[in-house]
Amino acid sequence: MATITQILEKVYPKLRKIEEDPILEILRTGSTSSSNPFAGKANAVYSLSFKVPCLFSEQPEIVRAGANISTEQQMYLYLKKSDLIECEPVDANREVGIISLKDRFVFKNRRYVPVEIQELFGLWKIKVVKE
């Protein structure tokens, strides 16, 4: 019986072909930055960038605020962990193949900030908003 990871390995390239092979540029800080949340923008120098093949999904999501219910367009990016490991430059201060909330993404000439990150069966599922 096939596992979910084996199925994703076969389906992922086919989905990329349907979406015309989208590419995502990941921007990263080059040095080890402080984990202090009150440090401000001093650590936000994005000197490393690399490109990774990806999948994307734009879908409406229901947002509830008190008695008001509205829909907003949400964007999800999907990256294979193995593709990320192959494309990512080696940094001695950081583990390879990991996505962080400090990373920034450039997709279709728009810059995005990650809001939520999940690792699912060898895929990174990243919910992003425009910066």
Any low-confidence stretches, pLDDT <50, length ≥5?
A: none
- Radius of gyration (CA) equals 16 Å
Helix-strand sequence:
HEEEEHEEE
The CATH topology: Thrombin, subunit H
Q: Which class do the helix and strand fractions yield?
A: alpha+beta
Describe this protein's structure.
The chain is α+β, with helices and mostly antiparallel strands and 131 residues long. It has helices spanning 4-18, 81-87, and strands at 23-28, 48-53, 55-65, 68-80, 104-107, 110-120, 123-130. Strand 3 and strand 4 (68-80) form a beta hairpin. The model has no long low-confidence stretch (mean pLDDT 83). The chain has one domain: Thrombin, subunit H (Beta Barrel).
Annotate the secondary structure layout.
Layout: H1 4-18, E1 23-28, E2 48-53, E3 55-65, E4 68-80, H2 81-87, E5 104-107, E6 110-120, E7 123-130
Antiparallel strand pairs: 1-2, 1-5, 3-4, 4-7, 5-6, 6-7
How would you sum up this structure in a few lines?
The protein contains 2 helices and 7 strands.
Salient structural properties:
2 helices, 131 residues, seven-stranded antiparallel β-sheet, Thrombin, subunit H, alpha+beta
